[in-house]
Design goal:
It is a single chain. By secondary structure, this protein is mainly α. The chain folds into three domains: about 1-50, no CATH class; about 60-135, DNA polymerase, domain 1 (Orthogonal Bundle); about 160-210. It contains eight helices and three strands; from the N terminus they run E-E-E-H-H-H-H-H-H-H-H. The protein is elongated, with a radius of gyration of 22 Å.
Length: about 210
Amino acid sequence: MAIYQRNGLWHWRKMVDGVTLSRSTKTDDKASATKIARKWDHEAVQKIKVDGERPVLLHDAIDDFLADRMHNKGYVSAVGYMKKWKNALPNVYMKKNHKHQVQKVVTNQIKLGLAHNTVSIFVTYWNALVNHYERKGLSPGSKLDHIKQSPTRFRVITNEEEALLPAATCPDTKYPAKNATFDAMRQDNQDTFVCLLHLGAHIGEAHNLL
């Protein structure tokens, strides 16, 4: 058993048959942390040596999955989708989140009005998480059935909608979850919108002009 302190809290780490397991005890009391760590030591040996599994906790899995993609294109989008998964499911070993429980999260997102193609991406991120840990030889649980995206329909916006776009993309306005990253994204969207208005071109045509 090994516990160590980080940012004022005690963390547990153990290696069993080449599998490194670690998690926070979420306490700054060493005696309590030691008691928790002994329990986790027993559970780890039971899962890996007796049951033959190589478990991974959901929240740790998501954090590691995102860390591997931190410098990739689309990282901010990945954070947004994985935060939804993290908030919707308990922090238990991934295999304990059965397919019907994971599917229920998707169903709830549909009931909340999430667009079809957004739901498709939401599911794709879950399956990417499972694939990530299957490649590492761990036991991440079930994949979801793929949801095929629908072709996007384009339409011409009205003059009234066009007039609302500058305010809707302005980074200086107050909006939910406002932060520097989203401000920068809004600024990019506004710059693109203004560019297209001035050029009178489709975005693909505008790219070709650069």
